[in-house]
């Protein structure tokens, strides 16, 4: 149990027809909420840090915290770099003990994406870590480009990624309107790549019924960041207002938001496991 790579949890989930939640931590409290939810649900989980934190000096220290929490957890926990932007970030994450990395080359031309992702995969595999890539492009304030089936298969074969993020109609952050997943595209990719765990980015705001349909078609890792972190912020704000200016020791104050976030994540973990 405890600290693992995604290779130790995703293939079994794919075979069982369920998905594992990958939640983006941003501080100690959000990380503890993720671990608490995994413990309570007796479920594997993926602790992620977004690549932005690798550019401002936070990822090394926070990564050490996540690794320590994972090692003490009774459930399998992978510690993953989300949306890595460079090979330097991949090298840093692996040297700091991350058990999984993602190199996001989805904005690059196909050949360049293959080249840089393949390098990241080789670096990860050399130290027993797992690697995720992305083909097609899941929007992050820009335009979405759906994955092409043939291109996706060529990418998977060329890079040897352990998990593959595909673009089937989701986007990062909150939606202005309800997204419509291309489940037929998901089915076609899944049938062509039956042993490869597929990843859904942009889990925030996607109707859970559609997410579960995608899981039944081969989606094995669900990324949730905005929704989870907003839940934490709203809990902190509500408790600050309830305190009415009175002093509460910070460590005690944070206990309630952690518990509310953990409960929120428990519901998502159950939904992703199709319970």
Q: What key attributes describe this structure?
A:
single chain, 275 residues, alpha/beta, TIM Barrel, 8-stranded parallel β-barrel, 9 strands
Describe the structure.
By secondary structure, the chain is an alpha/beta fold. It has one domain: Aldolase class I (TIM Barrel). It has an 8-stranded parallel barrel, surrounded by 9 helices. β5, α5 and β6 form a beta-alpha-beta unit.
Structural class: alpha/beta
Strand content: 15-25%
- Overall morphology: globular
Strand order of the largest sheet: 2-3-4-5-6-7-8-9
Q: Give me the CATH superfamily.
A: Aldolase class I
CATH class call: Alpha Beta
Number of domains: 1
Per DSSP E runs of 2 or more residues, the count of β-strands stands at 9
User: How many H/I helical runs?
Assistant: 11
> What is the helical fraction, as a range of percent?
40-55%
Question: Could you state the order of secondary-structure elements as H and E?
Answer: EHEHEHEHEHEHEHEHEHHH
* Quaternary class: single chain
The major β-sheet equals: 8 strands, parallel, barrel
Predict the CATH topology. TIM Barrel
Chain-averaged pLDDT: 92
Nearest-angstrom radius of gyration?
18 Å
Low-confidence stretches: none
What is the terminal-to-terminal distance?
A: 22 Å
Query: Which architecture name does CATH use?
Result: Alpha-Beta Barrel
